[in-house]
Amino acid sequence: xxxxxxxxxxLALGLWLTPHLAQxxxxxxxxxxxxxxxxxxxxxxxxxEVQQLPSRTAQIRRVARDMGWKSTRLQSAIERYESIxxxxxxxxxxxxxQALEASRVKGRVVSVEFDDSNESHVVAYIRxxxxxxxxxxxxxxxIAHAINEATPFVSTVSLAAIHPKAKETSKRNVWEGKVxxxxxxxxxxxxxxxxxxxxxxxxxxxxxELPF
Length: 212
Description:
alpha+beta, five-stranded mixed sheet, 45% helix, elongated, 5 strands
C-alpha cells in the first residue's frame, strides 16, 4: 500500500468510523457477525476502488455486495462494533479474565489471548494451571463456558493446562484441547462438577494428554 493510500485509509477510519448507536455496547454483546462485518469492511478500505468511493454509504454498499450481505446488515455490524469504547480484543481479554476468575479455575489462569486475524473465526487461547487428570475436563468445560458467556463472538477456544507444580513460564502442557462455539453453547455450568466427564469430554478435539 502506498503512503497516499495509507493516509486515505487512516482518514476514512478516523472520520467515518464513529459510533451511531444510542448507547455503547459491552464486549459481551458483540456477535460473530459484528466482528466479521467490521473486519471485512476495515480490510476493504485498503483497496483503492473502495477508498475512492464518494461516501461511507457507497463504501458500505460496495463491500456488502462483495460479501453477499445487504448493506443494512453490514451497516449494523459496523455500528455495533464501533460503539465499543476501547480496543475490542483487549477488552475481550479483560472480560474473559474476569469471567475465569469467577469460575472453578480462579487464581490458576496463566494467560489469556485473542486472535482476530481471521475476522470470520476469532480464537481464544487459554492456559491455566491444572490440579489433576481427574479434574482437567471440569476445568476445561468451565473455561469454555466462561469464554462463551463473556465473549460470544469466539469461534474456537484453544486450551492448555500446565502441571500443578510447574512455573508459569513452562512450555510443557500436560493437557491440550480445543472446543468450538456450538459445543461451548451446550455446556451447562451446574452440571460440570458431577457430569463433565460423561457429558462434555467428547466435545474437546485434538486432545493431548501427559501424566500429571
